[in-house]
Write a structure and sequence with these properties.
single chain; 243 residues; alpha/beta; Spore Coat Polysaccharide Biosynthesis Protein SpsA, Chain A; two-stranded parallel ribbon; binds guanosine-5'-triphosphate; binds magnesium ion
Length: 243
């Protein structure tokens, strides 16, 4: 039986998080020791209180409360550090709280790590994957951003921005040993760049990505700007870092 830590960063996800927690246990508990770690940044909508309540009648739900909105990337890093030292899982999973990443893909992600991959990406851009109910404009923007990122950074994986990922102990160890500069959404790219340059075995499995169920996006203009700046900076230094 493998121990799995599912890391979920939250900022104002009060209505989504109890549904997601329920889904995860239903789908993954069979045969695994599943732990859910919610990293909440003092959400004004009371997400932390909702998670606390759920954890009172469900085992293995853990809440990490941070005092302010420090970004999704730094939430993942804190979650990985905490889980590594408190749970010692065999597999780490990163996923969004807003039900965009369907839990029924979890067994496939986990299985591939247990079979020896270090990074498994839930991918919208391999055959069988996609985004449900996105306008063609949004699809183009996402695909374009992915393409530019992959070309500039020479990353082979098709969905470089996907946040739905499973990681092995080795991948997490490598990641934590490297001081990533991105605190926000760019974390996904920067971490994938690292895995790819370290030549860790990476697999993409197709997923359908759904529009967030409830609540508002946290993807701000400043997040998009720092994302773009990171890619430019990394593409200029890509031959030097990690050598
Ligand atoms: N702890 C923490 N979580 C965050 C932060 N920013 C975003 N999140 C969470 O990270 C996940 C992804 O954020 P979303 O707002 O869904 O971003 P997105 O999927 O690009 O945008 P949508 O189209 O609105 O879904 C969600 O679970 C958010 O609640 C943050 O600063 N801190
Ligand atoms: Mg989302």
């Amino acid at each position: 039986m493998a121990r799995i830590a599912i890391l979920i960063p939250t900022y104002n996800e009060r209505d989504n998080i109890p549904i997601l927690i329920d889904d995860i246990f239903k789908i993954l508990s069979n045969g695994h020791d599943v732990h859910i770690v919610v990293i909440d940044d003092n959400s004004p909508d009371g997400t932390a209180q909702v998670v606390k309540k759920v954890s009172e009648h469900k085992n293995n739900v853990h809440l990490l409360s941070r005092p302010g909105k420090y970004g999704i990337g730094s939430a993942y890093i804190d979650g990985l550090i905490w889980s590594g030292s408190n749970l010692s899982p065999d597999v780490f999973v990163q996923m969004d709280a807003d039900l965009s990443h369907p839990s029924y893909y979890l067994p496939e992600l986990v299985k591939n790590i247990l079979e020896g991959y270090d990074v498994v990406i839930g991918s919208r851009y391999v055959e069988g994957g996609g985004s449900v109910s996105w306008s063609w404009r949004r699809k183009m923007i996402s695909k374009g951003a992915n393409l530019i990122t992959r070309l500039l950074l020479r990353i082979r994986e098709k969905d470089a921005t996907s946040g739905f990922r499973a990681l092995s102990i080795r991948a997490v160890h490598k990641l934590l040993g490297f001081n990533l500069s991105s605190k926000g959404y760019a974390y996904q790219i920067e971490s994938l760049f690292l895995y790819s340059k370290l030549k860790l075995p990476i697999k993409e499995v197709p997923i359908l990505f759904f529009e967030r169920r409830k609540g508002m996006t946290k993807l701000s203009i400043s997040e998009i700007t720092s994302f773009a700046l990171l890619i430019i900076r990394m593409s200029m230094t890509r031959f030097r870092i990690f050598n």
